[in-house]
Design a protein that fits this description.
Keywords: Membrane, Transmembrane, Transmembrane helix. This is CGLD27 family protein. By secondary structure, the chain is mainly α. It has one domain. Helix content is 67%, strand content 6%. Helix 2 runs antiparallel to helix 4 and helix 4 packs antiparallel against helix 5.
């Protein structure tokens, strides 16, 4: 006789698989899971829109009519701040869900902050969650880390070139 698996006591909205599915379908968090063009386009758009803030600030520091190179470089570097923060939020969100999928003993709240419990995932659910992390979430986190590296390289190049111009 086959034994039935115990019912999962974790509320549906606290299940890591549900959090993962919501993030994957979310307008914002789905950026990380898109193809290269679908990922890069929103980042470039956010960077372009960031010029609306960084451009005037750079113009006050370096007059575009007298110091065009320094103006362009400082505005471009300043415009990296908002995309960097945006991608950091993506990284933190995906990392959080990945961590919750990877753990075997899942903490949850039944009805409020004062009644925390821990549910141990059965082997089949634990294995499924680990596969999702390995094949879906880790590539997203790797892509984001590579993007951070590119942005850091741009920042270092820009700072070095500001001192040359």
């Amino acid at each position: 006789m086959k034994r039935s698996a115990p019912r999962c006591p974790v509320p549906a909205e606290q299940l890591p698989i549900r959090e993962y599915e919501e993030m994957r379908e979310s307008w914002f968090y789905s950026w990380g899971a898109r193809d290269l063009r679908g990922y890069a386009l929103p980042v470039v758009v956010v960077w372009g829109l960031s010029w609306l803030i960084s451009g005037p600030i750079a113009a006050v520091s370096f007059s575009p009519t007298h110091f065009l190179n320094k103006f362009l470089m400082s505005a471009a570097l300043g415009a990296l701040v908002i995309p960097l923060l945006t991608l950091l939020q993506l990284y933190v969100g995906w990392s959080h869900v990945g961590n919750r999928l990877q753990i075997r003993d899942l903490p949850y709240e039944e009805s409020g902050w004062y009644d925390g419990q821990i549910w141990t995932k059965p082997d089949d659910i634990f294995k499924r969650d680990r596969i999702i992390v390995d094949y879906q979430i880790k590539p997203i986190l790797l892509r984001l880390r590579k993007t951070f590296g590119i942005m850091l390289g741009c920042l270092l190049f820009g700072i070095a070139s500001l001192s040359v111009f």
